[in-house]
Each structure stands twice: as C-alpha cells, then as structure tokens.
Design brief:
With 384 residues, this protein is mainly alpha-helical. 54% of the residues lie in helices and 6% in strands. It has 14 helices and eight strands. The chain has a two-stranded antiparallel sheet with strand order 1-2. The chain has a two-stranded antiparallel sheet with strand order 3-5. Strand 7 and strand 8 form a beta hairpin. The longest helix has 21 residues.
Length: 384
C-alpha cells in the first residue's frame, strides 16, 4: 500500500477527404446548462464516472488519455488542477465506508459500475490534497483493483462478471466502458503491464460472448438469470467508447510498441462497430436507432452522440478505417446539438437508461455523451 502511495505522489510532484464543419460547436451557455443538468442528476456511479471522463475531456484535456502527452507528463505542475473532477471524487469518498473494497458502496448495484470512477480517482490521488489524502486515495484505488481482479466472479475462461459475488455471472456490453479503461490507465500509471494487458483480455473475452456474427454488432446482456440479446445502441456505444479509451491509453503510453497487436485488434473491433452502426443512420433524423435490426425501435440521440464522438476520436488517433464516417458523424453532431439546445439542455429523443426499449424525456448519461461529443469534435478539428 505504501509503495503505491509513494509512486502516485512521486508522479504528482515529478512528473483531408472530408469537409470542414459548417456549424459551430455548442455555446458556453448551452454547455453550462448541460453540465448543470448532468451534475444534478449524476447520482449513480456509472453516470458520475462518465461525468468525470466528460469533464476531463472537455475542460481538462491534459489529463485525458486522448492527449498524446497526458500519460508521459501526468499531473505536471503546470497543468490546471481538475477541481470539478476532484470534487466529484471527494463527494464519493465522503460517502464511502472505510471497510468498503470498492470506490462506492452500492447496495444491489453492479460490480463493474464503480470502476468508472477509477481514472478520475487516480487523477485525484495525483492532484488533490496533501500526502495523507494521497495515501488514502492510493489505498482505495488498490482495493478496487484487487476487488475486480480477485473477488468478482468470473466465467470459466476468465471474463470478470458485471454482477457482484452472490449473483450469477453476467456479461454486459456496458462493462467495456466501466472497467477496462480504468485497468489500462492504472496499469500505465503504476507501470504494471500485466494489468494493461488484462484490460485488453477482458475486452477480447467480452467480445467473444457478445458479438453477433451476422452484423458485427454487440448484444447487450448474456448469461445470468436474464439476457438482452438485442443489438442495443447504447450498449454498442459503451463498448466502442470504452475500447477507444483503452486504445488511446496503449497508443500514448511510453511502452506503446509492446501493445502493437492489441492496438491492431482494438482498432479493428471499434471500426467494425462504427461501420455497422452508422450504416443504419436515419435519413430523416440523422440519428441512430435504439435497437439495430429491429422493426419496433426509435431514433436515440444518446447512443448517437457517444458513437459520433468515437468517430472523431478514432480519426484523431489515425485509426478510422472509413474516413467518410466523419461526414456522417457531423450530421449526427448537428442533430444532437440541435436537440440538446431546444429542451432546457436535455437531449431528446433518448432511451431510458434503465428500461432499454422505452424512450425517456431525460437521461443523465446522455448529457455526458453530448459533452464528450463536443470535446471529440473540438479536438479533431483543432488538429486539421
């Protein structure tokens, strides 16, 4: 525990063929409203974790894995302290039992969801408070890693369950955004290549369980006491966005050449999802469907926003196979921005995050997706 604390503290101290956009990004006032909506509704761990990632990407990009120098100069003294993100971690820390083995105590919750807070928790350990708090945070981070790798049940081939001990092992596409990016980030920061590799291994195992061979899309839930074999839009968005964060982490770490085969696989798997999803864009709404290859579905701006952000991120990384998707993503972005600024900042139409085949008027996670799309679009065009 002490060694982990010391390393974290030491790091803190020492350490084209497509058209340009025809419309601007969201205004500061619109973004402020969307952030306010998200902050007021981010009561679940996975929403709060996604909120931290969105804020890092938009407001503190020097800490985002999509910034090439982020992992080699993490917590440089010249970087602004990510106060908004650190305050979110402080809030979860104050509510957390000292005997907990996870970032957050969630009765009946998923084993994987609290890990979505992990990247921000590591950054808070590097940038927030004095030595005592850094040591405390480092211990909490180590407990979370141990919990995921050694306590949560697994399938016979080693896939970590989305559900906790005492429940049947279950595989969710959402897991790919919650757990592997945290393991990859932790592994790079702590110089533990085996943990970085584990992030890739979990993605590969999950893909084997969830990939629909006829479409290349991912099913939502497999195994356990119930399944959702439908090709859910947000599930595919979670998977693509999570893989993209792991991809960027591997590409931007100092030992990137050691992960060349994993980088190649991840790029291929992400592009497969992007090709399959964007081929189904609605010509009337410029949005993607809630469920793919389903006769009873609706256009969903939430998954559309997150998947469009992945297009821009993959293009920025130089890993987008079909660059014409940038034009399609631009259509989606304009539709998303128009929808997000016409309803007090609440994106519509969106799926209910808890009832996957129903529409909702408000989705907290969708607000985070809008912020991530804005950041990805901004960063892409800044380098063109």
């Amino acid at each position: 525990m002490m060694r982990l604390s010391f390393v974290l503290f030491a790091l803190a101290v020492c350490s084209s063929s497509h058209a340009a956009p025809t419309t601007s990004g969201l205004s500061d006032s619109a973004l402020s409203q969307i952030k306010s909506n998200l902050a007021g509704a981010a009561t679940d761990t996975w929403v709060s974790g996604t909120q931290t990632i969105a804020l890092l990407e938009l407001d503190y990009p020097s800490y985002s894995v999509f910034t090439p120098s982020s992992l080699t100069s993490l917590a440089n003294s010249s970087d602004p302290v990510p106060t908004e993100v650190n305050s979110i971690i402080t809030s979860w820390y104050t509510k957390r039992s000292s005997s907990s083995v996870q970032f957050a105590d969630v009765s009946g919750g998923a084993a994987g969801d609290p890990a979505s807070l992990g990247t921000a928790w590591i950054i808070a350990a590097l940038t927030d408070g004095g030595m005592k708090l850094k040591m405390t945070y480092a211990t909490i981070i180590q407990k979370e890693v141990n919990y995921l790798l050694n306590t949560v049940p697994k399938t016979s081939d080693g896939a970590i369950s989305m559900r906790p001990a005492g429940e049947a092992v279950q595989i969710w596409s959402d897991f790919i955004f919650m757990v592997p990016p945290f393991l990859a980030f932790y592994g790079v920061v702590m110089n533990q290549p085996s943990v970085v590799t584990q992030s890739y291994n979990q993605i590969k195992l999950y893909r084997n369980y969830l990939r629909d061979s006829s479409t290349g899309l991912w099913k939502h839930v497999e195994l356990g006491s119930y399944q959702d074999n439908g090709l859910w839009g947000t599930g595919n968005a979670w998977a693509a966005a999570g893989m993209t964060r792991v991809l960027a982490t591997m590409m931007h770490c100092s030992d990137s050449e050691d992960y060349s085969s994993q980088i190649s696989d991840l790029s291929s798997w992400i592009n497969e999802i992007l090709s399959a999803t964007f081929s189904q864009i609605s010509s009337s709404s410029n949005l993607l469907p809630n469920y793919y290859h389903s006769s009873s579905t609706f256009s969903d701006a939430a998954s559309s926003a997150l998947l469009a952000s992945v297009v821009y991120r993959m293009a920025s990384l130089g890993e987008l196979s079909n660059t014409s998707l940038i034009n399609t993503a631009e259509k989606v972005r304009q539709a998303v921005n128009s929808a997000a600024t016409s309803n007090s900042g609440w994106l519509n139409p969106v799926v209910d995050p808890l009832v996957w085949n129903q529409q909702s008027t408000k989705s907290p996670e969708a607000e985070a997706f809008v912020i991530m799309l804005q950041a990805a679009w901004r960063d892409y065009w800044a380098n063109q």
